[in-house]
Amino acid sequence: MVKWSDFERAAIQDIFSKIDYDVVGSAALSRCLIVYPWTQRYFGSFGNLYNAAAITSNPKVAAHGKVIMAGLEKALKNMDDIKTTYKDLSVLHSEKLQVDPDNFNLLGDCLTIVVAGQLGAAFTPEVQGAFQKFLAVVVASLRKQYH
Amino acid sequence: MTSLTAKDKDTVKAFWGKISPKAAAIGADALVRMLSVYPQTKTYFSHWKDMSPGSAPVKKHGATVMAGVADAVAKIDDLTAGLLNLSELHAFKLRVDPANFKILAHNILVVLAISFPKDFTPEVHVAMDKFLAAVALALSEKYR
Q1: CA-CA distances (angstroms) from residue A64 to A26, A29, A30, B27, B125?
Q2: pLDDT, average across residues A73-86
Q3: In a domain, A146, yes or no
Q4: Contact between A118 and A69 (Cβ < 8 Å)
Q5: In the prediction, which pLDDT does A35 show?
Q6: Within an 8 Å CB–CB cutoff, is residue A30 touching chain B?
Q7: Residue B30's closest chain A neighbor by CA?
Q8: What is the residue range of A100's domain?
Q9: Could you tell me if the ipTM is greater than 0.90?
């Protein structure tokens, strides 16, 4: 069981209450596809991903950014048992989507950077620590059903 | 991984020109975040009396690290040769596990995102990520 301090709980809830879901999901996924281009292998049906401008303005990328944020919100609402909450998502990613789980860390890093950009100085080292811990638990839960 | 293209180098040099006045502060903030979010990195600084944000050793070391990055920008066309002495320092004296270079790089990028929200575009992000990875590789050169 993951133990969350009062500070961590509050910080994580606070982050999600402040960020613009539509902007963050899309921006993080775009950065992931731009900064780590091999991640594009999972998005063959998304059409034009040829350059940064195309990726940033691609409507399928934006739509999928929202899907990702909805998934994160599930974890946010069930912080004390993300592992169980994510069981089906984990099976989906391993058996159907067949995503190399190392990619979860890449998207996580991009989420951290985008959230940092949105929150500015409010994204203190302590808040960053809480957010990265949350992402680490999310990633570990997504990895759980890989065999 | 991949080597820096001409476009990468131009992007890095142009962005560095914008951020270099704040380099020392960026270095200090990145170090603070690294020590706080990745506590295992504190093991390299047991000789510091004070590791808190704003402390003298952290500020000084942040400036030292960013001076090294500035040097790397100047020597961007041949990082392996340009950073030879620094590589020997890290390999034989400091013996920092190279995995930590990636950790510090991540925290530098977080600070850049906070300090330069408009300039730290995805294009700049990928160029800087590649550049810091290339610097890490050059620093690892003399390890074995």
Answers
A1: 7, 8, 10, 35, 21
A2: 97
A3: no
A4: no
A5: 96
A6: yes
A7: A125
A8: 4-141
A9: no
